[in-house]
Automatic annotation (TrEMBL), chains A, B:
Organism, as annotated: Brevibacterium linens
Residue stretches making up the Nucleotidyl transferase domain: 7-287
InterPro entries: GMPP_N (IPR049577), ManC/GMP-like_b-helix (IPR054566), Mannose-6P_isomerase_type2 (IPR051161), NTP_transferase_dom (IPR005835), Nucleotide-diphossugar_trans (IPR029044)
Listed Gene3D superfamilies: Spore Coat Polysaccharide Biosynthesis Protein SpsA, Chain A (3.90.550.10)
Domain of life: Bacteria
Regions annotated as coiled coil: none
Protein name in UniProt: Mannose-1-phosphate guanylyltransferase
GO MF, one example: mannose-1-phosphate guanylyltransferase (GTP) activity
């Protein structure tokens, strides 16, 4: 265990494509979306804490979710749950966490791991992260590139270059560029080329390297975060936070750090194939929970004590109650049965669930959001 | 108003294709399936009572439904609700009612009208029934033939012959034969020939004619019913009923009366096109409630105070509660949201709902049936 390696878990985002399971008050990462007995943030903790050590895990989340995070993660020090007064995207969240960590450990290496992703092969994940930490010793920014399962248009891509032959990171390559979510035809070219990998949004770097780039690329954001970090453990904490935070720019860490670093030839990519999924919508959930190909597909129940009656049907049912759910003649259905909302859609329309949330918002049904 | 014309409303059948709305304890005819403010049996009363007069309407139903029928039809004399100890199909039900009516009115003409059908053009229905009553004066059995909307395989057909030129029944024709529910190819031939009409299961006849045929075709059933009718208003009622009823044969009136009469050239058919539907499944319900062709189709809510959020969706939602129902990217969906069962199917699979009921039965989930 590298005692300078710290994990940052950004726990934000509303997860509207997983509505009405995921709500403003209880977003996706707080739910056991996959029905495996642990919420997504708990599963993230379970993966990451054994790698970095429990006392080197940090969570950045909205202040309205602080108590729920603390309750779900009983072994985290409350001082390592960083509460944001409002969402300011990942550059502010990760930047602030990196500063607070670097204050305590100037030689820190930080790794950022989303609170709401799924990884099925944790042993392989660990081996990949070990390589990433070794590669981060170079001072470069290290990211993980996932082998594309299909020409997805929902993910950004990383163009990979030559093997670097680094000690402790034998599969590390130079990252030539980050590409934003592509059109379908471009995505096919990427996948066919064999040179592109999905950007899973994981970054591993020396805190000092990351903060140097942040200072250079966005001095205003950097200095704002520095003021907050300086006052963090002082009586001025609340005053400085409420004075500075609202004025911070909302920017993604990808734009502020990763892309400039790639352009300067300072990003390394470690190929990682460990069953990563961003659990972005109910189609992801169904894919992660359906039986393996070749086995009969049916209806899978997640949560609750739901009895299922299925006739020529397949899909997933999320239910909080003990009602019987009967599905007749529908394939790849998605049903979410909560106390106040019943959602019915199909796996192929899982992306459109956010439209229903928009409609609910337009109608002023705020209690459902 | 013909003061010898009496209506019999057989109110039986479990309506499993409308489960979980329709249950053993509260079958289809007791529900406002179409969301029009009246249950199907109430709507039948509303159609029929003005034609025959309120004091000449009789209902035959299971004894476990007696109280609910009496409550839903406050203007019917309780003595004209005939309670069956167990289901014995339509020959016993209509035969017994005809006997009880004939005892009071030997010149009675009886008309049998199912408790769970829908008719949209009641004025036209009344004109057709007026013709049927006139035609029944001949002593023949009169039935109503519905113009087929499509080559349905779910209905029996009536083969029609020549116009008869009867007084008061100008469109009456000879019925050549009854045809059972056909195969699809046969149904297409029927419809293309122009000579076949749907058998809507309505019969109008002199009670004496109907009972004569019953006596001839099924003497055992006739004599059983006669013993029960004789004891009906006596202290022996319960004893005779419980001794005789269980032994009665289960037979449909079509086989015992209509088909033999047709073979003997004694059935008349009145063509009737008044928006008849047997409300057999949720596809029927959706067709009866969807907007007219050309108008935008959406999701229709029946019952409850359900809010709907629809995105690229159409279909019907039955809901008992005030939950919001969101449907995303599914066409012709059927959702039935009851306290203990949630059913989801499509209009095209509406016939298969009975399979889910079978599965529930096989699993011993009797409380859901």
């Amino acid at each position: 265990m590298n005692t300078h390696f710290h994990a940052i878990i950004p726990a934000g985002g509303s997860g509207t494509r997983l509505w009405p399971l995921s709500r403003r008050a209880t977003p996706k990462f707080l739910h056991d979306v996959l029905g495996l007995g642990r919420s997504l943030i708990q599963a993230t903790w379970d993966r990451v804490a054994p790698i970095v050590g429990e006392d080197r895990v940090w969570v950045v989340t909205g202040e309205n979710h602080f108590d729920q995070v603390a309750e779900q993660l009983p072994h985290i020090a409350r001082g390592q749950i960083i509460a944001e007064p409002s969402p300011k995207d990942s550059a502010a969240a990760i930047g602030l966490a990196a500063m607070l960590i670097a204050r305590e450990d100037p030689d820190a290496i930080v790794g950022s791991f989303s609170a709401d992703h799924s990884i099925t092969n944790v042993d392989e994940f660990r081996l990949v992260i070990d390589q990433a930490v070794a590669a981060a010793e170079t001072g470069d920014i290290v990211t993980i590139g996932i082998m594309p399962r299909n020409p997805a248009t929902a993910y950004g891509y990383i163009e990979t270059g030559d093997l670097l032959g680094l000690d402790g990171a034998p599969t590390a390559r130079r990252a030539l560029a980050f590409a934003e979510k592509p059109e379908a035809s471009t995505a096919r070219q990427y996948v066919n080329s064999g040179r592109y990998r999905w950007n899973a949004g994981m970054f591993i770097a020396k805190a000092s390297s990351l903060l140097d780039i942040l200072a250079e690329e966005d001095p205003a954001l950097y200095s704002g975060l520095a003021r907050i970090a300086e006052a963090w453990d002082t009586p001025d904490h609340d005053e400085v936070l409420s004075a500075v935070w609202p004025g911070l720019e909302k920017r993604a860490i990808d734009y502020v750090v990763a892309e400039p670093a790639a352009a300067a030839g300072r990003v390394i990519v470690i190929p990682g194939d460990f069953g990563w999924d961003d659990v972005g919508d109910f189609d992801s959930v169904a894919r992660l929970r359906q039986p393996v190909p070749g086995e009969p597909r049916g209806v899978i129940s997640i949560g609750g004590n739901t009895d299922l009656l299925e006739v020529d049907a397949s899909g997933v049912v999320f239910s909080e109650g003990p009602r019987t759910v009967a599905i007749v003649g529908l394939e790849d259905l998605v049903v979410v049965d909560t106390d106040d909302v019943l959602l019915i859609t199909s796996r192929s329309h899982a992306q459109d669930v956010k439209k229903a949330v928009s409609v609910a918002g337009e109608r002023g049904l705020d209690e459902l959001l």
